[in-house]
C-alpha cells in the first residue's frame, strides 16, 4: 500500500505540474492588435489640438520672455496680439470640431494672465 500511495502521489504531482505549465507550453495565439486608422475627423481634431498647443506655448514663452526682460514692451505689444488671435482661433476651431469641455483642461493647463496687470 505504501508503494501505491507513492505512485498515486507522483501521478498527482505530475498532473499538477502539467496543469500549471500548460499555458506556458502552448503556442501563443496571435490577436489582432493593429491600431485602427484614424478617421478624417480624428486627424482634423489632432491637427487642431497641435495648433492650439503650439499657439499657447508660443504665447507662454513670449510672456515669460517679456517678464524676464528678454523682450521689450514695444516688441511684446507687437507680438502678443497675433499670438493671442492664433490661440483663440485654434480654441474656437477645436470647440467647433466637437471637443468635450474637459478634454482641453486635460491636455494642458491654460493660464489667462493679462500682461498689463503685472505692471
What would you say this structure looks like, in words?
- The chain has 119 residues and is mainly alpha-helical.
- It is built from four helices and no strands.
- It has helices at 2-25, 40-68, 73-96, 101-107.
- The radius of gyration is 31 Å and the shape is elongated.
- The termini are far apart.
Morphology call: elongated
Strand content: under 5%
| N to C succession of SSEs | HHHH
Number of helices: 4
Task: Give the biggest sheet.
Answer: none
SS class? mainly alpha
Q: How many distinct beta strands?
A: 0
Q: Pick out the low-confidence regions.
A: 100-119
Q: Percent range for helical residues?
A: over 70%
Q: Determine Rg (CA atoms, Å).
A: 31 Å
Whole-number average pLDDT? 81
**Roughly how many Å apart are the termini?**
97 Å
What's the SSE blueprint?
Blueprint (H helix, E strand, L loop, with lengths): L1 H24 L14 H29 L4 H24 L4 H7 L12
Helix pairs in contact: 2-3
Gist?
The chain is mainly alpha-helical and 119 residues long.
Features:
single chain, 119 residues, mainly alpha, 4 helices, 0% strand
Amino acid at each position: 500500500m505504501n508503494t501505491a500511495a507513492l505512485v498515486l502521489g507522483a501521478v498527482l504531482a505530475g498532473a499538477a505540474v502539467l496543469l500549471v505549465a500548460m499555458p506556458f507550453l502552448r503556442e501563443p495565439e496571435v490577436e489582432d492588435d493593429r491600431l485602427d486608422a484614424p478617421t478624417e475627423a480624428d486627424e482634423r481634431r489632432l491637427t487642431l489640438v497641435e495648433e492650439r498647443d503650439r499657439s499657447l506655448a508660443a504665447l507662454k514663452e513670449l510672456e515669460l520672455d517679456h517678464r524676464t526682460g528678454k523682450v521689450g514692451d514695444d516688441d511684446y505689444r507687437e507680438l502678443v496680439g497675433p499670438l493671442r488671435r492664433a490661440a483663440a482661433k485654434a480654441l474656437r476651431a477645436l470647440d467647433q470640431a466637437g471637443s468635450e469641455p474637459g478634454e482641453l483642461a486635460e491636455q494642458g493647463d491654460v493660464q489667462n494672465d493679462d500682461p498689463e496687470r503685472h505692471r
